[in-house]
Amino acid sequence: MKKLIGISMIGAIVFTSPLVEAEASSFADVTSTHWAYEEINYILEEGIITGYSDGTFRPTETISRSQTAVMLDRALDLDDVTEYREYNDLDESHQNYDAIQRVGEAGVMTGGSDGTFRPTETLTRAQMSAVLTRAFELEADRSVEFKDLNESHWAYEEIAPVVTNYISTGKNDGTYSPSEHVSRAQFSIFMARALNEEFRSSSTNETFYGGDWSFDGISIGDPLEDVQRFHGDPEEILDSEYGFRWYVYHDDWDQYIQYGIEDGIVVAALTPQERWRASGEISKGANKTDVREQYGSPESIIVKDGMRYRIDNGHKDLFSVNDHLVTFYYDTHNDNEVSSVFIIDEAVENAYDQYYPDATGAIRSTYETQIVYLANAIRASHDLDSLERLDDASETALNHSRDMARHNYFSHTNREGLSPFDRMDADGVDYRSAAENLARGQVRPLDAIEGWLNSQNGHREALLGNYSHTGVGIAFDESRNNRPYYTQLYYTLP
């Protein structure tokens, strides 16, 4: 049996009536007070879009892909094609056949990999962004951030240019809504802005750019309704030592994030993955040097209940930034790149006038759950399978933590001389290979996990080892300010 020990303190639409040329002011449904009046009038004058024979423009109707092709063909004044493409769902009888062929040859709208063009399919905001980026050869000079959009979205690289060129600004609520369908009025605005910079906006509705901290688009001070609107129901709601509740999201372990909610407001956030953004130049890929160049010298002490506690700045830094306390954790095995980030409202932290948590069953349960969750999130970041927590091994781990806390010692070998593997055997825990990590005095579970990740003495290998199951137990030394003892077992079944 392989044994390893580590120790630490640590929707479609088609036109059904003929189109006619008209003045925008003559449209019964587009008066001078309409929010898109100027842009509709502009692209009408440019001969890009037209109204209906009944004198309406129908600004709220959606735009189909074939209609989009026609408008882009007019706007770009494309040349005739030299070689016609074949589409499974389109032939020469289609009224927009030639325009579709021209935008296809230009590489603006080429159809799907299945050989279709889908002419009646309604254009989405993501598709709109993609075709405008291609049509006008737009480039982005920075990253963009919305509550429902990140770099993993298929159209991110084509959405970013229309945002950074202020053609599309996103929604007022901080979303981009990439799957939302585009209306005739909306397309008029986007096209006008693409053609004429005078119509472009001077700002966007991003949640990160030019703003403050953002965790998956959610910032400190945002309402719980925003979290639930954009992330749904959490996988877990846990108590916290601060009194607020942790709303934990881990539908996929590589998309892990926790939000601290107090009185319906976000007061804290934590993630061991690149799901955060900050003001300034700090973002994913940053390391300790980048962080310190941005924020200066980190805090060296924290005061709780009149006592001063020294902060170990070896693999983490604490900063006070715009009424927030931010802790960066670094991976010393990976060029001190930022590994995890924890942020909390400074007033909330200051109101918590103690260092270690109360030794309650609820907090112990929260800490144990977070150890498992955070370990799985860290493992996901390293492309490793998640660990399943089992009760028998967790009982073994808990008993050891309790024994250490009650008798003030810190060792893999207990007072009876039994190793963790002896204890697993005695408790009937079947395993093929196993390892154990310990930590003492780490103020929160993330500190314990990050300590193991940064260890030089086998903890990292255990945390990131080829194991399938885990057991976790945490106890508090009630005679020493409730100092926590952590025990995590990792093992594979026979």
Question: Could you list some keywords that capture this structure?
Answer:
5-stranded mixed β-sheet; alpha+beta; single chain; 29% helix; 7-stranded antiparallel β-sheet; 494 residues; 19% strand
In words, what does this structure look like?
It is a single chain. The protein has 494 residues and is of the alpha+beta class. It is built from 14 helices and 18 strands. The radius of gyration is 29 Å and the shape is elongated. About 3% of the residues have low confidence.
Give the helices and strands, then pairings.
Layout: E1 2-7, E2 19-20, H1 37-45, E3 51-52, H2 65-76, H3 97-105, H4 125-135, H5 156-164, H6 184-195, E4 214-215, H7 224-231, E5 236-239, E6 245-249, E7 257-262, E8 265-271, E9 276-277, H8 288-295, E10 301-304, E11 307-310, E12 316-321, E13 324-331, E14 337-345, H9 346-351, H10 361-381, E15 388-389, H11 391-407, H12 420-426, E16 433-440, H13 445-454, H14 459-463, E17 469-477, E18 483-492
Parallel strand pairs: 1-16, 15-17
Antiparallel strand pairs: 2-3, 4-9, 5-6, 6-7, 7-8, 8-14, 10-11, 12-13, 13-14, 16-18, 17-18
Helix pairs in contact: 1-6, 2-3, 4-5, 10-13
Domain SLH: 23-86, 87-141, 142-205
Keywords: Signal
Signal peptide: 1-22
